[in-house]
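Final report, closing paragraph on structural work. Over the funding period we assembled a curated collection of sequence-structure pairs, and we close with a single example.
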Amino acid sequence: MIIAHTLSHQSLLLDYCLEASIRSMMDVCDSVYINEGKSTDGTLDLLYSLQREFGVDRLKVFERDWSHTRRMWTDERNFLIDKTPNDAHIFAIDADEVVHEDDLIKIKQSVLRGYPAVSFEVIHFYGRPTHYIEGPAWYKSHTRLWHKSTGIRLYHREKGCADDVLWPNGAPAHLVGYLNSGAKIYHYGNCRSPEALGRKAKKADDLYQYSDAYKGGLLAEARSFDYVFETVGAKVFEGTHPKYVKMWYDKHKNQPTKYDVGDGKFRKLWCFEEN
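Its predicted structure, as stored:
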């Protein structure tokens, strides 16, 4: 049994490819569990529409009052782990990530081979979904699939923009006891509309940024971002995209890559170092 986990809050307002993510998971998982932060933008309507399509046993929606502290992402993900049956494999995926149909066999074979934890290559699309980015700030692989019996959980990282996936003894799951599946996670979070990224900055960046600039509310008025490649250059993506993301891809493939926030300044994506 494979059960996918994802978090969702204001996903339509923030321009996540949530529906594509869920549909891609349905092709490989027995069930999808969604921890929903009580959205008010129509996201819940979308989720319950999909639940009627797939059935309540396959798509489970947990409406939650999120804590809105720096531990929020960790606590809400671990809530889903606790809800998962003990005999299940957990597939952790974000609402801005999609699995390619060409990799479904690789994912299922990884489970059949009996490894307690499985890692995936991650492709980070940037600016537009026609381009991707690589560099020190962008992790190349990540553990996303493990058996619940391992005791693997999410742990809050004090600095940075991600949580750690750790064994009970504190060892990182992507370094020990894992299998490289050869499958990919297609990450579209950094090629959303600039308006959505601006709204995300106002809603979320203060939760996992730690510099004085962020703590001081530098991004409080940000309306969009500047996709300048000052740290590393973006590369043209030559592969194919997952089938379920086509509509979202077509909407974003020609969007501009540079935006003025209105005060003569530009904002950078949160994963970049501040200058």
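The two ends are 46 Å apart (CA to CA). Confidence is low (pLDDT under 50) at residues 213-224, 269-275. We thank the funder for supporting this effort.
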